[in-house]
Design a protein that fits this description.
Blueprint lengths: L4 E2 L11 H7 L2 H5 L4 H4 L4 H10 L8 E7 L2 E6 H17 L7 E5 L4 H13 L2 E5 L5 H11 L3 E4 L1 H4 L12 E4 L11 E3 H4 L17 E7 L7 E6 L3 H10 L8 E4 L6 H13 L3 E5 L5 H11 L3 E4 L1 H9 L2 H4 L9 E5 L5 H11 L3 E5 L9 E2 L6 E2 L5 E2 L5 E4 L12 E5 L9 E2 L10 E2 L2 E10 L5 E6 L4 E3 L2 E3 L1 H8 L5 E7 L9 E7 L7 H14 L6 E6 L13 H8 L23
Parallel strand pairs: 2-12, 4-5, 4-6, 6-7, 7-8, 11-12, 11-13, 13-14, 14-15, 28-29
Antiparallel strand pairs: 1-17, 2-3, 9-10, 10-21, 15-16, 16-18, 19-20, 20-23, 22-23, 23-24, 25-26, 27-28
Helix pairs in contact: 4-5, 4-11, 5-6, 10-11, 16-17
Length: 581
C-alpha cells in the first residue's frame, strides 16, 4: 500500500498539538462551557442560539446567511432566537408537544433551521427528510416517523403519496397556497406574524431525544438512529477541533438537507461553537459554488468528494475566473478523496482538503485530518480526542498494523446514538466484546491513521444516502415476474456496483429487455444514480439445509472459485432474502 504523506499547512488551529490534545482530553472539561452546568436547565437550543443572543454575549453577530438567486438575507443570533420562538409558538398551537415528532421535508431554506430549533425548544423530536426521496421511500418513512406535523413546500407536498401523512397530522406549508392534499393543512406565512417572539423553553434531560436520522439497514429496513440533547457536547467539540469553528467563523456545509452531515454540521454544531452558518438555496453548479465561495468567503467549507470531482470536471479555466483566496479550512466526508483530486484542488485553490469519517449512528465526526496535522492520502485520518478506535477481528481482538479487520470504537462518546427508533433490541447487533462495530473494513498504520476498505455488509453511498441489498431487493420484488432475488456487491477493483440474481415466476422469460426493465424499476424507486449494473437470472438461489440464503456462494462464483457442497454452510448475515409482499 503506497501512502503519500502531505505536510500540514502552516497555520494555527483551535486544536493545537494533536498528540497533546488527544492524550489530555477529558469530556468533563468541556461540560464547564455549557450553561446547564450552572443553571441545571438543559436544552440544545439554549446552548446553540439563546446564550449567544443574551445581552453581553453576541446578539447582533451574524448567525445565518442565506442566498438564493443572487439575493442574500442575513440573520443575527437575536433574530434567529426570536424567529425560532415564533415557530415554537406556531407549532405548539398546532398541537406539537414534547416527545412528538416533527418531520421536515425541504430544500435548503431558513425555515428548515427555524423549524428544527423550534422542535428542540418544545422538547419535540425532529426528523429532516432528504427532498430527493422517492414517493415510495417517503411513504415508508412517514409511517415510521408518525409525525404530528410535516413542514414542507407546496411542490414537495405534491410528491407525497396518498395517505402517506397520518390522518391527524398537520401539513404545514412554508409558502404558496394550500394544495388541498390533506384534510389538515395550513400556511406558516398566515400563522407566523401573530406569534410572540418569546417562548418558554421546555427543559429536558441529557437523554431526551432530539432528532431521528434514517440510514440503510443493509439487509433490513432503514434504521432510525435516535440522537439526544446530550450529544451537543460532541458536536461542539468536533466543530471546534475538526472544522476549526468558533465565534466569528462562517461554516458552509453543502450537503442536501436530511443527510446527517447537514443536520449536524449544517447548523447545530457551528452554532454551538458560536459560528455563523451559510446556506445556499440554489441547485448545484460549479459556477454557483464558485460564486458562493468568492462572495461569502467561508472560513470552513465542509463538502463531499463528489462535489470536488464535479468542480474538477468543469475545468481549470472556470475556477481561475474567481478569487477564492478568502476560503479557509476545507474538509470532506464520504468516500475517500482520490489523490489526483486532492492535488488538483491544492493546485487551483492553494488549500489542502482534509478527509473525515463518521456515520449516522456515531452522531459526530470520528476520524479526521485535523487543521495543522499531516495528511495521508487515502486515509480517513486520526481518531478525534475522546474516542478510542481500533481494528478488530470477529472476536473483538485488536488486529496488528496493516491487518484488515472491522473498524470499531469504545462506546460512550456523547453524540453516540441512544437506540433505534421503534426497534428495541436491534441496536445490540452493533456491539460485541465491548466495542461498537462500524460495519466498515479498515486497517491502521504505525502513525495511527485509519484506512477504509469498504463495507462488510455490501452497503454503498448513493447521492449521500447509504443503500444496501435490502432496498434493491425490495424494489426488484415489486415486479410481478420476480419470484425472489438476492443482491451483492461483486468483487471489483473499480468503483463498486450492485449485481442482482433473480429467480423468475413461471411464465416469465429471462430476456435482455426484462433485465433493463428491472434496472429501471430499481432506479426509479431508489435513485437514478443507483449502480445496479447487472442482472442475472438463476433457476434457484443457493441455500443451506435450513433454507438460509448463502450470499458468499454468489460472491465465490463471481470470483470463479469452487463452492462444492454448501448445504451445511451457515451464512454470516441473519436476514432472509427479500420476497414480494
Amino acid at each position: 500500500m503506497i501512502r503519500t504523506r502531505i505536510r500540514a499547512e502552516e497555520r494555527t488551529s483551535r486544536l493545537g498539538s494533536y498528540q497533546e490534545a488527544y492524550i489530555n482530553f477529558r469530556w468533563e472539561k468541556l461540560f464547564q462551557e455549557f450553561t446547564w452546568q450552572h443553571t441545571g436547565q438543559y436544552n440544545l437550543v439554549q446552548e446553540a442560539i439563546d446564550r449567544w443572543a443574551e445581552p453581553g454575549q453576541m446578539p447582533d453577530q451574524t448567525a445565518l446567511i442565506y442566498e438564493r438567486h443572487g439575493e442574500v438575507s442575513s440573520y443575527t443570533f437575536r433574530q434567529v432566537k426570536e424567529l425560532s420562538c415564533q415557530w415554537a409558538n406556531m407549532l405548539a398551537g398546532l398541537g406539537l408537544t414534547a416527545g412528538d415528532r416533527l418531520a421536515v421535508l425541504m430544500p435548503p431554506r431558513p425555515e428548515l433551521h427555524l423549524a428544527v430549533l423550534a422542535a428542540a425548544r418544545l422538547g419535540a423530536v425532529f426528523c429532516a427528510l432528504p427532498p430527493d426521496l422517492t414517493p415510495h421511500e417517503l411513504y415508508r418513512l412517514m409511517a415510521r416517523v408518525d409525525p404530528k406535523v410535516l413542514v414542507t413546500t407546496p411542490w414537495l407536498a405534491r410528491r407525497l403519496p396518498g395517505e402517506a401523512l397520518p390522518y391527524e397530522a398537520v401539513l404545514l406549508l412554508t409558502e404558496g397556497k394550500l394544495p388541498g392534499l390533506h384534510h389538515r393543512e395550513d400556511l406558516a406565512t398566515r400563522l407566523l406574524p401573530a406569534q410572540p417572539t418569546e417562548f418558554a423553553t421546555h427543559w429536558v434531560g441529557a437523554s431526551h431525544p432530539l432528532y431521528l436520522v434514517f440510514t440503510s439497514g443493509g439487509d433490513g429496513p432503514p434504521r432510525g438512529a435516535v440522537h439526544v440533547h446530550g450529544g451537543m457536547v460532541g458536536l461542539m467539540m468536533t466543530g471546534r477541533y475538526v472544522l476549526d469553528l468558533g465565534p466569528g467563523s462562517l461554516c458552509w456545509t453543502d450537503g442536501l438537507p436530511g443527510w446527517v452531515t447537514s443536520t449536524v454540521y449544517g447548523g447545530l454544531a457551528p452554532w454551538l461553537c458560536g459560528s455563523a452558518v451559510l446556506l445556499i438555496g440554489d441547485e448545484f453548479s460549479p459556477a454557483a459554488w464558485y460564486r458562493a465561495l468568492e462572495r461569502h468567503r467561508p472560513t470552513t467549507w465542509y463538502t463531499r468528494p463528489g462535489v470536488i470531482e464535479l468542480l474538477k470536471q468543469a475545468g481549470d479555466d472556470l475556477v481561475k475566473r474567481y478569487n477564492l483566496t478568502g476560503l479557509g479550512h476545507v474538509a470532506t466526508v464520504g468516500r475517500s478523496l482520490p489523490p489526483k483530486n486532492f492535488f488538483w484542488f491544492r493546485n487551483n485553490f492553494n488549500r489542502h482538503i482534509h478527509d473525515t469519517w463518521w456515520s449516522a449512528e456515531m452522531g459526530m465526526i470520528a476520524l479526521a485530518h485535523f487543521p495543522g496535522t499531516d495528511i495521508k492520502l487515502g486515509s480517513a485520518g486520526l481518531p478525534v480526542p475522546g474516542i478510542q478506535a481500533a481494528v478488530v477481528d470477529g472476536q473483538g481482538q485488536s488486529q496488528p498494523l496493516l491487518t484488515l479487520g472491522e473498524l470499531a470504537f469504545q462506546p460512550g462518546w456523547p453524540a453516540m446514538f441512544s437506540g433505534l427508533w421503534g426497534e428495541a433490541g436491534r441496536e445490540e447487533g452493533f456491539f460485541r466484546e465491548g466495542w461498537y462495530l462500524s460495519g466498515d473494513l479498515a486497517t491502521t498504520d504505525e502513525d495511527g491513521y485509519y484506512y477504509l476498505h469498504g463495507r462488510k455488509d455490501d452497503i454503498l453511498r448513493v447521492r449521500g444516502r447509504l443503500v444496501g441489498p435490502y432496498e434493491v431487493e425490495r424494489a426488484l420484488s415489486h415486479h410481478p415476474g420476480v419470484a425472489e432475488c438476492a443482491v451483492i456487491l461483486p468483487p471489483t477493483e473499480g468503483a463498486p456496483w450492485f449485481k442482482a440474481f433473480v429467480v423468475l415466476r413461471q411464465g416469465h422469460k429471462g430476456v435482455w429487455e426484462l433485465k433493463e426493465v428491472l434496472k429501471a424499476l430499481a432506479r426509479a424507486e431508489i435513485s437514478p444514480d443507483l449502480p445496479l449494473s447487472e442482472v442475472e437470472f438463476l433457476p434457484e438461489l443457493p441455500r443451506n439445509a435450513n433454507r438460509r440464503l448463502l450470499r458468499r456462494v454468489l460472491k465465490a462464483r463471481e470470483l470463479g472459485l469452487p463452492v462444492g457442497g454448501f448445504e451445511s454452510l451457515q451464512e454470516d448475515w441473519t436476514s432472509e432474502v427479500t420476497q414480494p409482499s
